[in-house]
Amino acid sequence: MRVPARRVLVLGGYGTFGRQACAQLVRRGIDVVVAGRSLEHAQQCAAALRPLAGGSATPLQMDGGGIEPGDIAAIGAAVVINASGPFQLQDYGIARASIAAGAHYVDLADARTFVVGIGALDAQARRAGVLVAAGASTVPALSSAVIDAYAPQFGALAAARIVIAPSNSFDPGLATARSILGMLGKPFPAPQGAATRTLYGWQGLRRWRLPGLGARWLGLCEVPDLDVLPPRYPGRPSVRVYAALEIGLLHLGL
User: Domain boundary at 78, 110, 133, which?
Assistant: First the structure.
């Protein structure tokens, strides 16, 4: 049975993206539990969040790899946000524990296999009356939202090209850095209509001028959009996703 909406448990809450999620929730008057393996880091993050108007921030030492339904129930969490990547190394233990505890589950995964496979928990989540959603991140959540917004302007969608172009001043965090380094040069299948092509991480090098940002080098990325987007539209458009670092030498070095 789903618990009443009282608080949100954020695993990896003091990380680059988890901290942002915690801040937005506290500003909206929601009580947040900032959780992670380091109690010291959780305490520092919670202290920084407390001056924000609205909700509260409580630090907690917790390893998501060993989380049990009782742990979530004891906290009184109505929602569990999993920001403790890299998701390439995770299973669905946290999601399953959330379902069993009657809590909604959302994660920030951009790992292709992890996001696509989360559907295996759909029936279990529906029986528990909770939402289980993976990929609430730049890809595939925001990229899909942008394409959905513009798709009606076209008679048909034949291809989608997505470019992630971060500022060099942005610190992606250790998990994202590991994810990027783990894909370099690795082959991956990419649907193209009825066929499948083999592409390689950070290859497909090309120069592209981005409005407001200027020209940047682009490199191919393996992300959930390759599988998630084509079935959403008639004709199954081909999808390619690129990363474009601000400093060209750094991009070419990778």
Answer: 133
Tokens representing 30 are 């929601």
Residue 41 sits in the same domain as residue 154: no
Ranges of beta strands (E only) in the chain are 7-11, 31-36, 57-61, 77-82, 104-107, 132-133, 159-164, 187-192, 195-200, 206-210, 214-220, 238-243
CATH number of the domain enclosing 183: 3.30.360.10
Q: What is the pLDDT of residues 172-199, one digit of tens each?
A: 667 677 778 888 999 999 988 778 899 9
> Are residues 205 and 126 in contact, defined by beta-carbon separation less than 8 angstroms?
no
Give the number of domains in the chain: 2
Q: Please report how many Cα atoms fall inside a 13 Å half-sphere around the Cα of residue 141, on the Cβ side.
A: 13
Query: Which domain range does residue 218 map to?
Result: 138-253
Beta bridge partners of 135: none
